[in-house]
Amino acid sequence: MSVLESEIGTAPPSGWSVMWTRYKRNRAAVLGLVLLVIVLAMAATAGFVEPVDPLRRAGDPLVPPFTDWATPLGTDQLGRDILAGIFHGARTSLLIGIVSTVVAISIGILVGAISGYFGGWIDDVLMRVTEAFQTIPNFVLLLALVAILGSSLQNMIIAIGIVSWTAPARLVRAEFLSLRGREFVEAARNLGVGDAAIIFREILPNALPPVIVFASVIMAISILLESALAFLGLGDPNFASWGNMIGAGKAVLRSAWYCAAIPGIAIVLTVLAFSLIGEGLNEAVNPRQKKS
Amino acid sequence: MSMLNYMLRRLVQAIPVMLIIMVGTFLLLKLAPGDTVDALVGDMGGADPRFIERLRAEYGLDQPVLMQLWIYMTKLARFDFGWSFVHEQPVMTVLMDRLGTTLLLMISSLFFAVSIGSLLGAIAARKAYSLTDNIISTLGLVFYAMPSFFLGLMMIVLFSVKLGWLPVGGIQTIPSFYEGWDYVKDVALHLIMPTASLSLIYLALYMRLMRTSVLEVADLDYVRTARAKGAGEWRLMIHHIMRNALLPVVTLLGVQFSTILGGSVVVETVFSLPGLGELAYKAVIQRDMNMLMGIIFLSSIVVIVVNFLIDLLYARLDSRIELT
């Protein structure tokens, strides 16, 4: 069998399987994936743990964890089941994390793409606006938006998206700046392809990978922002939220610190999961980059 | 002369950003339900419609929107942020009262985050891939995932409730008549936990960045030259590696500053520190929109000034950069 034959015989591995091989080399990244699967499972099974309402009274107030089988993780000062709160809180956190990341990245792609593609005064104006958004402390702006829009789940998602689009916008702009002069773009332009089609069909697919890797960072930050809002009592009161549970736990910190500690651990593990996944993806996409 | 030119140019660059923020706060105020007159009338407990009409005219609220924007911007440019109906004082007076505490918290947190972060990062890099490195890097990841308010509460449980070492909140013991060093010591004690909970995320960031940066710089030719000339490990680290490895840390510091200032809202609320952040939270609860916009505007100015100073520091650290 000649060398030539053997080369034709083996099908090249697909892009996804190469990514996965690289990704799973990083043990921490695999741990992140496992953590995420656990949180996803919690969100999916929340309805079985507490089918009625996680905010209803489930037992006596302030039952410590691991003492009563009906409420394995104990209850807070209003007798609400902490375990049910954790499972339903996973739903809220993931929902807000994912949707507001989509909002932030969509705004970021739009601003970054237009800015990087057209350049000139359009770029100048959009970049000054981006700078203005980066100058205003994001949490203060978030407070103002929530104060004005109101704190329903939907408005919180929009507000979190509005305060976190600047980083992806800069990322997309940088990618567009380096791609817009490439030959394939010139070729498309010479064929008479319009600006919008060049931006979205030609350049954007090539500019997306780093943005997708960065999405996990935005996801982690969105979850932290939501929990901070809920902790301050500015979240949507109709949904169980880890931040809100910690805020309520603050009142009974002296006698029952577990009320704040258990949801806190849930937040730490979830955010950790997204950070680890982000790192793993980054290494898988940029294998030549030095391990940092 | 070039220094002065550079500073002037940076100031001119900040102007459009400031103008955009002015327009932005005006739009937010317009979006908010109710205006100044509604707040005033609510504060008085109601008034007859003709009086309300006259008030609107007096505040320029009957003018076209662009005219209102112009009035608003000229007021902001003179640092006139309007009247707070909650505090019964001009917004600016209240803000100036609170600014000091927040700046103190910022400075101590940044100092802590940068110094400890860089130190740990440098140690991790020198012992790369060892057990020490792994422990430091893992701790960094956990710190990064820890919400400041959660860390703050857990520290209160441990250090205030269980051990009784540190005060639960506030900026000073009340009532106290401490003077001189006793006063400084008292404030410092009150700042330990807020500083730790605000800075830990950034400490983790600077640590990671410093580790990468030191690993990169340590491979460069000039470091090898210095080593060949017989420079000791410590001298090498401090004189040759650290100084250059610090550059990206300083850059990140500028980018992160506004985020840290935003983080003070949560930390100041947890520890009831009388600063801008706690004021922002109360303004939202009490719907004091003038106050909230004043905070946005003032903190933006603080961010711009700090970034300006960081640029100067950067130029000082890296003599290759010319101030043109």
Describe this entry's structure for a reader.
The complex is a heterodimer of chains A (292) and B (324). By secondary structure, chain A is mainly α. Chain A is 72% helix and 0% strand. Chain B has helices at residues 2-31, 36-44, 49-58, 65-77, 91-126, 131-145, 148-162, 181-217, 221-228, 233-270, 276-285, 289-317; strands at 83-84, 89-90. The relative contact order of chain B is 0.14. Chains A and B meet through helix 5, helix 6, helix 10, helix 11 and helix 12 of A and helix 1, helix 6, helix 7, helix 8 and helix 10 of B.
Supply the helix-strand structural class of chain A.
mainly alpha
Oligomeric nature of the chains: heterodimer
Structural class of chain B: mainly alpha
Mean pLDDT of chain B: 83
Sheet with the most strands of chain A? none
- Count the E strands of chain A: 0
- Give the spatial strand order of the biggest sheet of chain B: 1-2
How large is the count of helical segments of chain B?
Answer: 12
Query: What is the averaged pLDDT score of chain A?
Result: 85
CATH homologous superfamily annotation of the largest domain in chain B: MetI-like
Number of domains of chain B: 2
Q: Uncertain regions of chain B: pLDDT < 50 for 5+ in a row?
A: none
Output the CATH topology of the largest domain in chain B. MetI-like fold
CATH architecture of the largest domain in chain B: Orthogonal Bundle
Largest interface: A-B, 47 and 53 residues
H/E series of chain B: HHHHEEHHHHHHHH
Rg over C-alpha atoms of chain A, rounded to the nearest angstrom: 23 Å
CATH class of the largest domain in chain B: Mainly Alpha
Strand proportion of chain B, as a percent range, falls in under 5%
Number of helices, counting only DSSP H or I runs of 4 residues or more of chain A: 12
Distance separating the two termini of chain A: 43 Å
